[in-house]
């Protein structure tokens, strides 16, 4: 039951983000084509499931691409090691979330053209910043900034 409620809540959040924030981020090029709630909720469900699936591939790819950065950071002595690894991890997460939302926005635009208008990959990239900001902003304030602050104080 909790999984169904979480899925419904996540679908609702995606629906609201693409209803109100994505048009602002994309300059009004990525918008819903229908006023009906059913197709919008279905869009949110597609975005939720697709982003969760694609995120695992994206995280693996970006961590693999940034592996030399992590190896160099681990070889460096001192408190800068922690900051470099934390920064690399933050970069990998940001890129993974953004690319996942971007790809799913393009896919949703192709699969549901009567629900959402996605004219180009560039517009999808701009619109994908809306769910990325909504996703990562709480983590930035609750996790990332205090860790950086404590590591600077400890150094």
Q: Which helices and strands, and how do they pair?
A:
Blueprint: H1 2-25, E1 31-32, H2 37-65, H3 67-75, H4 80-111, E2 116-117, H5 121-154
Antiparallel strand pairs: 1-2
Helix pairs in contact: 1-2, 1-5, 2-4, 3-4, 4-5
| Total of DSSP H or I helical runs spanning 4+ residues | 5
Task: Specify the structural class.
Answer: mainly alpha
What spatial form do the alpha-carbon principal axes imply? elongated
Number of strands: 2
Order of helices and strands: HEHHHEH
Range of helix content: over 70%
Question: Which ranges are low-confidence, i.e. pLDDT below 50, for 5 or more consecutive residues?
Answer: none
Adjacency order of strands in the biggest sheet: 1-2
Distance between the termini: 46 Å
Question: What characterizes the major β-sheet?
Answer: 2 strands, antiparallel
The proportion of strand residues reads under 5%
On the 0 to 100 scale, the average pLDDT is 86
Radius of gyration: 18 Å
